[in-house]
Amino acid sequence: MSLGTLYIREGSGRKTAPLAIIKALNLDVKVVTNPDEDPEFKKNFPLSKIPAFVGADGFALHELIAISYYLAGLSEDGSKLIGKTLKERADILRWISFANSDLWGSLREIILPLVGRLPYTPETHAAAIAASARFVDYFEAHLENKSYIVGDHATVADYVTVGLLEVAFKTIWDKEFLSKHKGIKNWFDTVINEKPLSEIYETPYKYRDEALKYTPK
Length: 217
Ligand SMILES: N[C@@H](CCC(=O)N[C@@H](CS)C(=O)NCC(=O)O)C(=O)O
Fold this sequence. Notes:
The chain contains ten helices and four strands, in the order βαβαββαααααααα. It has 217 residues and is an alpha+beta fold. The mean pLDDT is 97. It binds glutathione.
């Protein structure tokens, strides 16, 4: 019997972790990729944000982190993805929260103006790059000599972070950036080329030669 319905939108970096958990744990969850046409989505989620999840019992949840932990908890094997000990669970949660707030929050200020979703000026663009460097450099330092964010295998921390950072890889992180951020590049290569992420993205991943440039409309 289906455990429930996951609502996502294809272009979103926040679709990745719930999808990866469903695949990794072989959960019987229906996935809806056009939520705006679904009356159940509109009824349960007035904010209209994804990801969103409704269980077979009617339990309705939004927020990427909450959904990820709930889905992982639906299987006994889920602890390998969200941590077995209290310290592991806290560490994984720390990196998920960092990626979903500081890291992505700073990167979106660079990316959204370039794709026409926020106003662009050269000054705000330069300031956004400088502000994000603090978080990107911190993440890069963490990944030095590591294949995974926490421990020796992929966890929800990797799934959430790959989903969000893939948006940077497909827009602003070009080969020059990658040559200066080898920890991030090696980690991303490792995780995205493994199942289940290799089933969600086209792999081997094609990196951009050059970052997207602002073109006035
Ligand atoms: N705090 C929420 C943010 C969710 C969110 O902003 N989702 C975006 C896609 S990544 C969305 O649905 N945006 C559509 C909108 O704001 O109307 C979470 O972490 O899940």
